Predict the 3D structure of the following.
Amino acid sequence: MVQREHFGGGAGVAEAGHHVVTASAAVRLSEVLAGLSFALDLTEGQRPGHSVRSCAIGMRLAEEIGLPQELRSPLFYALLMKDLGCSSNAARFAALFGSDDHAVKATLKLSNWSDAAESFRFVSKAVAPGQSFLRRTGQMLALLSRGLEGAREVVRTRCERGADIAGTLGFTPHTVEAIRALDEHWDGRGQPYQLKRDQIPMLGRILGIAQTVEVFWSTYGFDAAYAMAAVRRGTWFDPDLVSALESIKGDVEFWDRLRLGHTLGEVAAYEPVDEAIVADDARLDLVAEAFARVIDAKSPWTYSHSTGVARIATQIAGHLGFSTPEVRDLRRAALLHDLGKLGVSNRILDKPGKLTDAEFAAMRRHTEHTQAILERVGCFRHFASEAAAHHERLDGSGYHRGLRGDSLAKTTRILCVSDICDALLTSRPYRPGLPADRVLDVMKRDVGLALDPDCFAALRVLLTTTNLAPEAVPPAVQLVPALAEDYIQAA
């Protein structure tokens, strides 16, 4: 059940002696989602804060057109969470274009892809950059051969996935349908269902113009954003919404706030105060689970990794005598530990061979991204460092901070062991999942040096008493022997 309440301030309450924070009535769901939306910006290749700036623009337009009050809260959350489905088509973008999915998506948002000529120009520039003419030509022909239905399928995956996750978060049908209609256009030439005019929910129309204006505004500037909106009036955008946009052109204070980057701190001001949703513990669990789905959808090879790590970690913690609040906190950290992987290209995540030094360096940055995003979320900030440290090792050989020994909290040690275990149990592009006894053999080499002995002992009990059989799914490519037991790359 959704709780709504007026807010005046406050903070999470820390449990004495432990890194545990429980939700209080002062935790607004909007603050949690605004912080986590930076992970969605990463996935779409957008500048940090894209979602919250889009939210500000959309809510300002809602005010200008006199949107009924009962629709403003659903709009607010639809704007913040419009990209919930963005990770689900990342692997396909990378494979279809032979390119970094972030770069393709960022360029696509600046293209008038409903126009055939501009769409062709976009494709010809975006496919297989830096490759030979023959390779690029072959990649482009393969992509174009999929036709409109192929493009529609890619967009449909994203829109339906986003709408589904929004539904599981308990948002109203207005929010869910707005996210589903994110890429529909006023003239019926949008995707995926080619809705037109009033067939497109009003909230979906606002999402469409708000996000596109933000992308052009942050990339090319104020004048370019307005010029784009004028050109797409009556094609992409509802003419009335373009008129509303024109009417706020002179609101210097509003545009300055966006330019100065203050929007995240002020996002609560855009939420209808009488409809503010309380993020109690149950809802925070739901949010962590929802974003785990976003993370795991990024690659078909990690489709259950975050939930798998959470399952293993909580059982290890129980064996080690963690309290119920501590286990709950650890589970959230485990579900969110790979948030930063949303910023790693699928050309790296799904690569069937060993990573180059440059690719591995890019992969290693995902822990930094995880920490930066979680630190934006007040009620998750206390475990940001511990969640982001899941690749650190006792001997200091891990990343991204090179921590060692006593610098690693017990929760981090559990996450390290759980992360490796799940990575070895499940299939990767270059090898099938390993059986439990082989996983233990591989990991025990590093016990006491890199991995915590107590956590490994608890894991051994778990794997020998619980059926955590590996997937029966073989890798899609030929096995690379040198990578068969490479958990450093796999995790």
Notes: Residues 281-490 form a domain with the Hypothetical protein af1432 fold (CATH 1.10.3210.10).
